[in-house]
């Protein structure tokens, strides 16, 4: 075994295996991109392929038929994602820090309260009444931001990470005269970059992929987020495609439903891929590196 390690054979085999796994993960994305620029009839006859045989930009032309609506939807989605993720991180971290302090006398009941919300909810009708009537958020972007800002699962994940931070660091800061807010912003946050990146990614993904909030609370077309706008485009295309005949020709021959699905995936996944690649390095950082830098 030692000879294999010195010659590097195991590392070579591991590299080959990981490369094959990476290729298997990339192939679906290539198929999605290829199908989005493929002719609809080719997809129907030959199925999805890695490399397109008959190029067609019909799906993208259909989506970009009203470019001002698409750009506006991108802007709305970026605004609610950025503000919701930032506010969610702040509130989640403050709650998690409070729950992680052993000296907090209400720690047990509050932990149970947070956990209880993961098991039960009031239902759709009370939720709609609360957001639309009680808080009067219907028709505003706040209806897309506030309801998704705090999640009990995110709070528990961050609380567990805060508990693992050595208590000696916090006690040393208190001896030096630091208050709770200074401890939180000057010690806890610098040491918690990995969990902040993780929860931040969760929040960004939830806001970016959400369309149900817009379905419930948004009526103005100018306030539609990207996902709901593309959902409407795809739904309208599929409704047209369900018609049996138009002019003696099947609708599927002219309405690119399959390639349209893939084109919507490309337009929504591409920005999130960039976000993930930009923060993935934080997932491999441990608390030791954070302690040294702090």
Keywords summarizing the entry:
single chain, 294 residues, mainly alpha, MetI-like fold, globular
Would you give an account of this structure?
The protein has 294 residues and is mainly alpha-helical. It has a single domain, classed as MetI-like (MetI-like fold), CATH 1.10.3720.10. The chain is built from 16 helices and no strands. The chain starts with a helix and ends with a helix.
Poorly predicted runs are: 1-5, 286-294
Q: Write down the overall geometry.
A: globular
The first-level CATH class is given as Mainly Alpha
What is the H level of CATH, i.e. the homologous superfamily? MetI-like
Radius of gyration: 25 Å
Second-tier CATH architecture: Orthogonal Bundle
Number of strands: 0
For the largest beta-sheet, the strand count, sense and barrel status come to:
none
> What number of structural domains do the residues give?
1
Structural class of the helices, strands and pairings? Answer: mainly alpha
Distance between the termini: 41 Å
What share of the residues lie within helices? Answer: over 70%
Could you report the average pLDDT, rounded to the nearest whole number? 82
User: Would you tell me which CATH topology applies?
Assistant: MetI-like fold
Beta strand %: under 5%
- How many helical elements? 16
- SSE succession: HHHHHHHHHHHHHHHH
């Amino acid at each position: 075994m030692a000879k294999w390690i010195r010659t590097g054979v195991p590392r070579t085999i591991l590299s080959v295996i990981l490369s094959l796994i990476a290729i298997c993960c990339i192939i679906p994305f290539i198929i999605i991109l290829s199908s989005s620029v493929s002719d609809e009839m080719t997809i129907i006859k030959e199925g999805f392929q890695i490399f397109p045989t008959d190029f067609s930009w019909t799906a993208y032309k259909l989506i970009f038929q009203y470019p001002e609506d698409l750009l506006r939807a991108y802007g709305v989605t970026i605004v609610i994602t950025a503000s919701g993720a930032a506010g969610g991180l702040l509130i989640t971290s403050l709650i998690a820090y409070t729950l992680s302090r052993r000296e907090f006398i209400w720690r047990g009941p509050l932990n149970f309260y947070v956990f209880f919300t993961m098991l039960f909810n009031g239902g759709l009708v009370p939720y709609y009444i609360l957001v639309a009537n009680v808080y009067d958020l219907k028709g505003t972007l706040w209806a897309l931001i506030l309801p998704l800002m705090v999640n009990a699962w995110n709070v528990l994940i961050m609380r567990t990470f805060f508990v693992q931070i050595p208590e000696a660091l916090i006690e040393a800061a208190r001896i030096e005269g630091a208050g709770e807010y200074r401890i939180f912003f000057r010690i806890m946050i610098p040491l918690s970059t990995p969990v902040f990146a993780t929860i931040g990614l969760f929040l960004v993904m939830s806001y970016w992929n959400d369309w149900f909030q817009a379905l419930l609370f948004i009526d103005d077309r100018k306030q539609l987020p990207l996902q709901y706008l593309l959902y409407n485009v795809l739904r309208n295309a599929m409704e047209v495609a369900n018609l049996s005949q138009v002019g003696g020709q099947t609708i599927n021959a002219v309405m690119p439903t399959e390639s349209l699905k893939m084109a919507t995936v490309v337009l929504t996944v591409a920005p999130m891929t960039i976000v993930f690649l930009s923060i993935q390095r934080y997932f491999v950082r441990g608390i030791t590196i954070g302690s040294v830098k702090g």
